[in-house]
Amino acid sequence: VPRSGRGGREFESPLSDKTIIMSEEEKKSPSRLPALPQEIKEERAKRQILEDEKKLKEEQENSPKWFAMRATYRCEQDMKEQLEQANKDFTCFLPLVLADRIVKGRKKRVWVPAVSSLIFVRGVKSKIQEFKAKHPRLQYLCNFTGKDTRTPIVVPDQQMADFIKLYEGGNYEITDDPEIINSIKPGQKVRVVEGPFINLTGTFQRMKGKRSKQFIIKIDQIACITTTEISPHMVEMIEN
Predict the structure, then answer these.
(1) How far apart are CA 123 and CA 92, in angstroms?
(2) What is the rounded CA–CA span in Å between residue 240 and residue 232?
(3) Which of 55, 124, 128, 182 lies at a C-alpha separation of 20 to 30 Å from 16?
């Protein structure tokens, strides 16, 4: 805000109580305006950082993600169908395995969830929240990030894509056994360089109860999928 003063014009910065005084010579030469004080520059930089962080957070909230979720026992398939009917932007993945079941007194091979109650849902969180409000049989699987604080488990897109590709390739094993999952230690990451599973990333190690090493894709503490179709000569080490 300009105001008159002795020996020149004064300007008050909206970000500082300090006044910038211009001489008569500087008034005649606009190109020779004095530089902004350092504290004003720093304040503007801080504001820009806060605005950028806010914008990034909004973009992240509005972008679709893979959420690990839990459906009521034996309602997994029904919940998957309801999700896909409710919103065309939802993508669901329900891993299944063939198992022997008694149906009407006869033994049959039927498809059942590989991990009881587990279903993966990709969508914008706010839209999933709207669906959950009407369907209490669907809940997030969460990690405890602090006392009384739970955070929904989000699976990275690439990891989920690799998990699904390995699943669709057949000849796999899926387990949610905590003892087995906890036995999988953080190991050297590898990338498949040949064969039908090329470009998949995971670890190559021996699991509890197995004689030989296997290729493993582990999703948090929820589940892991393994296969023996990928041998050591088919992978290369990558940086962790």
Answers:
(1) 9
(2) 18
(3) 55
DSSP state of 234: G
H-helix or E-strand containing 33? none
- Contact residues for 18 (Cβ-Cβ < 8 A; gap 6+): 37
What is the average pLDDT across 35-62? 76
Predicted TM-score (pTM) of this structure: 0.72
Which helix (H) or strand (E) segment holds residue 53: the answer is helix 38-61
- The rounded distance, in Å, linking the Cα atoms of 227 and 147 is 37
Q: Position of tokens 């004080």?
A: 37
Residue 28, token pair as written in the block: 């005649």
Burial of 216 (0-12, 13-18, 19+ CB in 10 A): buried
pLDDT at position 60 is 65
The token duo for 48 is 């820009």
